[in-house]
Amino acid sequence: MIELNNVSKKYGGQQALEGLTLMLPLGKIIGLVGENGSGKTTLLKLVAGLLTPDSGSATFSGSRITRRVAASVAYMPDADLFYPYFTVGQLFDFYESQFVDFDLIKAKEIAQFVNISLDSKIKNLSKGNRGRVKIAVTLGREADYYLLDEPFSGLDPMVRDDIAKGLIRYTDTERQTVFMSTHELKEVEPLLDEIVVLRGGRVIAHEAVDEIRDTYGKDATSWMVSLFREGS
Amino acid sequence: MGIDFLPDKPIYQQLIDRIMGDIIRGMLKPGEKLLSVRDYAIEAGVNANTMQRVYKELEQMEITETKRGQGSFVTEDVEKIALLRNEMREQLVTSFIQNVEALGFSKDEMVLYLQEWGEEK
């Protein structure tokens, strides 16, 4: 379990998170939504141990989150991260050397599942195929938490579909948690157990998707829109 | 991605309706094996937890049964399926009548219209 308690963080000269409290249990797919600048990326980096809170606490299984959390948490940034001269296969070998939990066989299976050849050079791949490689190396790890920053953004429908199916196929919702930021809530909603809504560096709502539909009789997107209308 | 869901009803309920529909229409035969939870989840583009819930509720309704180590199967009890079909018909008509009354049409008018409509097609 990851727990954030009253976390504040200034980042890039701005107050990115302000008294944020959040619990991320194991065994869920959780969406993170909010406007640009609401603190989504800062929150993901903080959970990944790449940033430390200015105040408040961030813990994983009861211990304070540090960079060492990377052994149990797989973080996929929004940006391209790759070594352009590697082939996909070489990139996998590199990951295997860096992460104890990287499962080369699983990664190769995912690559095949999303139609990526191991012999392709990263620099020759299209943006969509680089997106596919990113998800393959990330899910290739047997982590407790997968933190995905905008895994679908800027990709065409075919790629988004492959990534969504890869997520369902290669994560175990009994013992692993996916926490992903997204702007494509309408499309992503069927994948989610829960939604966390950020505004101004705080969590303004955290609900189960089925509960939203049951209680309010609307889908997550309309619910979020009305949440923002009421709040402003 | 996967199935298009209606906005006003929980996704797991829509999946239950979908599978029950397949059983009633005979797309899924009595005793036929269902896809595994994960394979169905991938096909439908939904979370595996959601699919797990769908399978569990279908089993609780005794529409499917789980054989250990083999997966989930449509019940072989054809009477049960006939009963389910009647229930679905009842639900359909109930909501239809509610709409009809809400708009002030009479039942006789609608019966007549339905018959004519059927002939035109």
From TrEMBL, chain A:
It comes from the Bacteria. Residues 2-225 form the ABC transporter domain. One of its GO terms (molecular function) is ATP binding. InterPro entries: AAA+_ATPase, ABC_transporter-like_ATP-bd, P-loop_NTPase. Keywords: ATP-binding, Nucleotide-binding. This is ABC-2 type transport system ATP-binding protein. It comes from Sporosarcina limicola.
UniProtKB/TrEMBL annotation, chain B:
Transmembrane segments: none annotated. This is DNA-binding transcriptional regulator YhcF (GntR family). PROSITE patterns: HTH_GNTR. PANTHER family: HTH-TYPE TRANSCRIPTIONAL REPRESSOR YTRA. It comes from the Bacteria. Keywords: DNA-binding, Transcription, Transcription regulation. CDD domains: WHTH_GntR. InterPro entries: Tscrpt_reg_HTH_GntR, WH-like_DNA-bd_sf, WH_DNA-bd_sf. Pfam families: GntR. SUPFAM superfamilies: Winged helix' DNA-binding domain. Residues 9-77 form the HTH gntR-type domain. GO terms for molecular function: DNA binding; DNA-binding transcription factor activity.
